[in-house]
Amino acid sequence: MSSPAHTWTFRRLGGLDQATLTTAADLQHLKDLDPKLWVALSCPTRGLELPEATLSLLDADGDGRIRVADLLAAIEWTQRRVTDVGLLLSGRDTLPLDALRQDTEEGRALLAAAVSLLAALGRSSASSLSLEEAERSAEVLRSSAFNGDGIIVPASTDDPTLRSAIADAVACLGGTPDRSGQLGVDAALIDAFFADFAALPEAGRLLRLTRDFGTLLRNFVNFEDFYAPDRPAIFQAGTLYLDTRSTQFCIYVEGATPLAAMSKAYIAYCDLRRAGSPPAKIAACFTQGDSDYLFVGRNGVFIDRQGRDWDATITSIVDNPISIRQAFSAPYKKLVRLIEEQVARRAAAADAASQNRLAGAAEATANLDKQRAPEAPRKVDAGAVAAIGVAVTGAVSVITLILGYLFGMKPWQYPLVLAGLIAAISGPSMLIAWLKIRQRTLGPILEGNGWAINGRVRINLPLGSRLTQRASLPPGTVRRLDDPYVDRAAAARRRTFILVVFVLLVAAVLIRVDQMRRVTTSGRKLRRPRPPRHPTARNRLPRLPASHCALPRSAPALPTAPVGPGRRSRDRGETEPLGRAPTNTARPVPDRAARRPTPAAPAGWATG
């Protein structure tokens, strides 16, 4: 098995494996990298923080988009003109002359053009050419007076650049004397002298690629700039300040698109206005805080990458969870809003009813002479009263049941019940928010703006906290809390309410603890000792055979107890007079000992 031609280095950024571009070998073998591993496959030439002139040079077919083939063609074009294609990753706006190739026809032509241009600018000894010099000199040469109408001498122009160029042409090729005898140049000499300048556009293109191509690759092949903490990506338009937050996750867009909702991010589309500039639109993504005060129509300030400030107004919103903390408090805030809405609705209804009653009273006062006889008062509806009673009874029963259940718990169970109640209320909202935040991705937002994103560029919590920052006091700030306009009465009522609730909770816990202590103590007093499992030998009785326990066939007659004088008979309730002989009518007294069977003595036992 043959070894690969190039060993790539991939780095995990934002949960996505991205190829690193740091050496000339990476650029030379970029054509061998599978396009499925590129983060982006195409991007528009507008709305990016790169000069449009550079993007237009890369857009070979002029369709307004830069594709993979355009970038590979630019690398191939550069390789034929410079000795080290890694120069494209330097970000420099100067071109060293010794970096131009002399073994290719394109490299030699470009070197000759650079040398001639530097000579025309009076910098024959310079070792590098800047982008500003290349573009300015090309413009000067295009607008020069060298039109071949005659001989032009250095004194014919006041432009020092043109004067120096004419003098260099005379010195290199020899001049043609004009009528005054001064040496100058004609059309033939101009064509011969400036033949080397045909490669000037190529020099400008190479300088632009040297400065901007590396930045484009870091936002096309990979999204290194987007995840870098010290530099923004080329699609990040600037910073929006709104609602005590600043978000750097702002992208120029044509308008709102349904595709952006697939990003699972909270997006606020804003219109930008600035005097002297055409209006623009951005999609601002908030990745930290809450959305309580983000609504359509709210205004903010947008600072673009050039430091210019714009007036920003929210026009539409794509609502998604911003943070788990917001999801935790969302059910309670929703409950408060519902209560407020119900109170406001009831207050509005009561106000309308009051106005109607006042209007009716005024009308009745105005028509006293036309009033009819007063109607008899309506009887009270017993069914309604019964229904109200049943409802009140049910509510009291429910409250009593709940309080009984609470007072019946042990002290250590109260925190568990509270935690379970909070989890039951906030748990579903937090779970949904967690799932959506884990799925936040940049791709749909850029695709709605003309990009073709190949990978899932996720926005996790650490990255989101960097893109959106909340207001915080500077280190070492001294805070003074003596607000002269604080509502002290409301604060006192709030503290009193909290104190009462706390005292009630403490009292409930103490009562429950006392009840448990009493139950435990009384249980110890009433506890009976358990009988021994194995009785001692002395407590055991001898076991007799079953034959000895049989009852005899004839039992002796039970003796009767005479009824004494003045004693009441037990069976008839009669009383015998004193001194009278007892009769046999008395109820016989049972002899309990006689009822018991007398066991026969075992053999060998003495009887008596």
How would you portray this structure in words?
With 608 residues, this protein is of the alpha+beta class. Helices cover 40% and strands 13% of the residues. The protein is built from 16 helices and 17 strands. It has helices at 24-28, 52-58, 68-79, 105-120, 131-142, 160-173, 187-193, 200-217, 224-227, 324-366, 382-407, 413-438, 443-447, 461-467, 488-525, 592-595; strands at residues 10-13, 16-19, 40-44, 65-67, 94-96, 128-130, 176-177, 183-184, 238-242, 245-247, 250-252, 266-274, 277-286, 299-304, 309-318, 452-453, 468-470. Strands 11-13-12-15-14-9-10-17 form an eight-stranded antiparallel sheet. Strands 4-3-16 form a three-stranded antiparallel sheet. The protein has a two-stranded antiparallel sheet with strand order 1-2. A hairpin with a 5-residue loop joins strand 7 (176-177) and strand 8 (183-184). The longest helix has 43 residues, at 324-366. The N and C termini lie far apart (119 Å). Residues 142-149 and 569-573 have low confidence and may be disordered.
